[in-house]
From TrEMBL:
Pathway in which the depicted protein is active: Metabolic intermediate biosynthesis; chorismate biosynthesis; chorismate from D-erythrose 4-phosphate and phosphoenolpyruvate: step 2/7
Function, in words: Catalyzes the conversion of 3-deoxy-D-arabino-heptulosonate 7-phosphate (DAHP) to dehydroquinate (DHQ).
Annotated compartments: Cytoplasm
Protein name: 3-dehydroquinate synthase
Source organism superkingdom: Bacteria
Gene: aroB
């Protein structure tokens, strides 16, 4: 692919083609992925000097403390500018590994090997890295291109069902942003997708990765069109943290709030609003929440890194698979719609 984003979609890890010479390879992964893939992955790489750093699964590993611990490990094990970091895992592993690679000795080479649907279609592509600070998701981070991304489509078959559905929420997001026919594909092929049909999985991963690469090529540093990829995220990040939900499920709820707000503002009609919700319902992906204070969600939204001039930036649907970034919605309107969706649980 152009612009430095090379994505290879394969059926295993055996075709990873590392052309450069490295003095050391550091694989960063979590406990779950290590048990499933690490031994075979190391054999596949066929490098002599491989070291591993294993983190705990989940967002709690995207912290300054873990970041510092990995840095100390790198120094103790003589990781150099001629070394390589491989991120083997989901979005948390990828975000953390990318930030480490971008900042260790001012930057060393990075390869992503994403193992979850969410990371394969979204977080591994486009160079975003980040760690969290308290309730503020990815508030510390950088843009950093990997050498390439190697997707083993069969890792999706070892995911827990809810984790797969969480990733599917990001897939639906792409359809809602720019591909209305893809929305129908997801509805018409529900059974095959839920049964992890290899042809369907390859199709949706390729479709989403191509969409994201196309957007990133036009706007790498998220100053314009790339912001549209954040549909549901500004609402979702607060819900994710406060409700202890998966990223994908929180984004699905956030997308529902965005669609509800657009419908109430007259940007979209009732038919499209209901169709969008029908896709999430077809896959039994949650689109409402409970037990979270709506004002607390709004407070986190006001601290979102995408805001500017003290205005909340929202990605809102404006038509069939068409969205726009707006910053002119009153906080009272935003809060009211958050409360409406929360009350539907």
């Amino acid at each position: 692919m152009e612009n430095g984003y090379k994505v290879y979609i394969k059926k295993d890890f055996s075709e990873i083609d590392i052309k450069k010479d490295y003095d050391k390879v550091l694989i960063i992964t979590d406990e779950n992925v290590k048990k499933l893939y690490m031994d075979n992955f190391i054999r596949t790489l066929n490098f002599k000097n491989i070291i591993q750093y294993i983190i705990e699964p989940g967002e709690n590993s995207k912290t300054l403390n873990v970041y510092e611990d990995v840095f100390k490990f790198c120094i103790e094990n003589e990781v150099s500018r001629k070394s390589l970091i491989i991120a083997l895992g989901g979005g948390v592993v990828g975000d953390l590994s990318g930030f480490i690679a971008s900042t260790y000795m001012r930057g060393i080479d990075l390869i992503h090997c994403p193992t979850t649907l969410l990371s394969q279609v979204d977080s591994s592509i486009g160079g975003k890295t980040g760690i969290n600070l308290g309730n503020y998701k990815n508030i510390i981070g950088s843009f950093y291109r990997p050498e390439f991304i190697h997707i083993n489509i069969n890792t999706l078959k070892t995911l827990k069902h809810n984790e797969f559905l969480s990733g599917l929420s990001e897939v639906i997001k792409y359809a809602l942003i720019c591909d209305y026919e893809f929305l129908d594909y997801l509805l018409n092929n529900k059974s095959k997708i839920l049964n992890l049909d290899e042809e369907c999985l390859t199709y949706i991963v390729k479709k989403c990765s191509n969409i994201k690469i196309d957007v990133v090529k036009k706007d790498e540093k998220e100053s314009g069109i790339r912001k549209t990829l954040n549909l549901g995220h500004t609402f979702g990040h607060g819900i994710e943290k406060l409700g202890n939900l998966s990223h994908g499920f929180a984004v699905a709820i956030g997308t529902h709030i965005a669609f509800r707000l657009s419908y109430k503002k007259g940007y979209i009609n009732k038919s499209y609003y209901e169709k969008a919700l029908s896709v999430y319902k077809a896959y039994n992906i949650p689109i409402s929440f409970n037990g979270i204070n709506s004002m607390d969600i709004l407070k986190i939204m006001k601290k979102d890194k995408k805001n500017s001039f003290s205005k909340i930036n929202l990605v809102l649907p404006t038509g069939h698979s068409s969205v726009e970034v707006v910053d002119n919605i009153d906080e009272e309107e935003i809060l009211y719609v958050i409360q409406e969706v929360g009350n539907e649980f």
